[in-house]
Amino acid sequence: MAKSFNEITFKYKTNFINRVSLFVSIFLISIIGLSIFSLLNSGFKSEDAFLTNEDIFEIIKFTFVQSFLSVFLSLLLGFLGAKILFDIKSVLFKKIVISLTSIAFVLPTVVACIGLIKVWGGDGVLHLIRLTLNLNKNELTLYGIFGILLAHVFFNAPLFLRVFYNCFQIIPINYLKNAKQFNITGIRFFKLIEWPFIKETLPLLCGVVFLQCFTSFSLILMLGGGPSATTLEVAIYTAVRYDFDLKSAAVLASFQLFICLIVILFLDLFSSNKISNLQIKTNYLSYNLYKKKHF
After folding, report:
1. What is the pTM assigned to this prediction?
2. pLDDT greater than 50 at residue 169
3. pLDDT tens-digit profile of 236-260?
């Protein structure tokens, strides 16, 4: 009876916390929605708007394109880097590489942008190398989509590398031995051995990186290179800072909020139920072990 009572109490507390969180989320979303609605109906004329419908469409399209490309390139480089690191025998080298990947998590965005400019910019190291080797014909422009993707990959590829490397580490040794014995390589090795261990974390990881790239501000502001490489976040800042067009800013903020909510709800279908159930089971098991030990 005591066990069933504690189990019911724990589930009741969990449900109560979930309901309170849902109520707070609805309350905050309502405040944001009413604020945006009031800005949209603030009396600004359509001809006074800072952005036209075509401009808004181009901004949203570029935001999606750079976000998807950033996620894809970061995933690809992180996966290849994790495979190479996993096959290396030296434990010390692995620890050094994993430690170096942590730099991207704590390095300020402005510092990283300045570093990229010093390497890839007009007066950077690579520019001097191109001048020395007379390779100016194929000069790459840092400011624009190339610089944005380069910066996003710099920050997000280490995250994919760490997660994929941890997934490879939990693959049982007998799986690897059997794959080697039956000569399973290439696509078949990825499908049969690696994919079952990374598919659970992939949607959540890609979603988090996508949201980070989708709402990126300082990177785009420093490396965007003009109106042709502008995201929603930078467009909101420009509309308010330079033209004080609150209506255009409200429209852009509405699109950004709506898209981010869709991505979050999409991720919730893949991960939240599994994670919450695992947390409930773990917490309840820890509570029972603590009770048996001390009582």
Report:
1. 0.75
2. yes
3. 888 888 878 777 888 888 888 888 8
Closest-CA residue to 59 (of 214, 240, 250, 261): 214
| Boundaries of domain holding 147 | 46-107+141-271
Q: What is the CATH number of the domain that holds 183?
A: 1.10.3720.10
CA distances from 45 to 51, 216, 248, 250 (A): 12, 30, 11, 14
Could you read off the pLDDT of 272-283 as tens digits, one per residue?
555 444 444 444
CA distance 193 to 21: 39
Q: CA quadruple 241, 245, 248, 249: dihedral positive or negative?
A: positive
- Domain contains 131: no
Q: How far apart are CA 38 and CA 295, in angstroms?
A: 58
User: Are the C-beta atoms of residues 230 and 196 closer than 8 Å to each other?
Assistant: no
Coil vs helix vs strand at 20: helix
In a domain, 164, yes or no: yes
pLDDT tens track for 25-45: 676 677 666 666 665 555 444
Locate all alpha helices (DSSP H) within 91-225, ordered by sequence.
91-101, 103-106, 109-120, 125-133, 145-169, 173-181, 186-189, 195-198, 202-214, 218-223
> Phi and psi of 92, rounded to 5°?
-65, -45
Number of domains forming the structure of the chain:
1
| pLDDT given for residue 257 in this prediction | 85
